[in-house]
Specification:
InterPro entries: ThiF/MoeB/HesA (IPR045886), ThiF_NAD_FAD-bd (IPR000594), Ubiquitin-activating_enz (IPR035985). This is UBA/THIF-type NAD/FAD binding protein. GO terms for molecular function: tRNA threonylcarbamoyladenosine dehydratase; ubiquitin-like modifier activating enzyme activity. The chain is α/β, with parallel strands linked by helices. It has a single domain, classed as 3-Layer(aba) Sandwich (Rossmann fold). Helix content is 36%, strand content 17%. The protein has 8 helices and 9 strands. The chain has a 7-stranded mixed β-sheet with strand order 3-2-1-4-5-7-6, sandwiched between helices. A two-stranded antiparallel sheet has the order 8-9. α6 links the parallel β4 and β5. The longest helix has 17 residues. It is globular and about 50 Å long. 41% of the residues are buried.
């Protein structure tokens, strides 16, 4: 056992560590939530990961996103995260796709490798729903993140079936879109039962496929990311 994995091995045991080492996890979206999920999954010893995100670091990301620093503004998020993960585990096998995933490209993405788990950390509705639908249609293991914006109480964060969530506008929108696509299967999600602060939500028209943006605090996306990681690791 490599020295950096010793503490995790004490908890999980060698057989489970071997399983993680052989696993391949796809993470789509490496912003506030996805980057923390990716790092926690990497630190636990997962041996292969594919990261997808076409975005670059912006000054507004610095308050909550793992790769976002004054020195990294303008750089691709997946490239920064890839560099960081290789510093954690030099043997990790990474596929970095610095692209904005489009609906029509999702089947090809899901079919290009044998994924043991899919992590949905997308914050735009259409590709999010297509990724969910295509993953469920392929019987892939998937966990999806709902909205962490305009919320502050970490005690309200929970796992739930998408169809049973409350007080989450993103969950409601995803349910509506999936029903139109004929998708009714159970979908595990991470979400917050807390009511969003309406004063922390503003309408916008200058971001790709977004109609609004929410105020955020540093720790909430990290908590969501850790929930995603726990779900994936436990089930692997």
């Amino acid at each position: 056992m490599e020295q950096w994995k010793e503490r995790t091995s004490l908890l999980y045991g060698e057989a489970k560590m071997k399983r993680l080492e052989e696993a391949h996890v796809l993470i789509v979206g490496t912003g506030g939530v996805g980057a923390y999920a990716a790092e926690m999954i990497c630190r636990a010893g997962v041996g292969k990961m594919t990261l997808v995100d076409g975005d670059t670091v912006q000054p507004s990301n610095i308050n909550r996103q793992l790769p976002a620093l004054q020195s990294t503004i303008g750089r691709q998020k997946v490239e920064l995260l890839g560099e960081r993960l290789c510093q954690i585990n030099p043997k990790i096998e990474l596929t970095l796709l610095p692209i904005f995933i489009k609906d029509e490209a999702i089947p090809e993405l899901l079919d290009r490798a044998k994924y043991d788990f899919v992590v949905d950390a997308i914050d735009t509705l259409s590709p999010k729903c297509f990724l969910i639908a295509e993953s469920l249609n392929r019987n892939l293991n998937i966990i999806s993140s709902m909205g962490a914006g305009a919320k502050t109480d970490i005690t309200q964060v929970a796992f739930e079936n998408l169809w049973k969530t409350i007080n989450c506008k993103l969950s409601k929108a995803v349910r509506k879109r999936l029903l139109k696509m004929g998708i009714k299967q159970k979908l595990p999600v991470v979400y917050s039962k807390e009511l969003a602060d309406p004063n922390a939500i503003i309408l916008i028209d200058d971001e790709q496929n977004k109609k609004s943006t929410c105020g955020t605090v540093s720790y909430m996306p990290a908590v969501f990311g850790c929930y995603l990681a726990e779900y994936v690791l436990t089930r692997l």
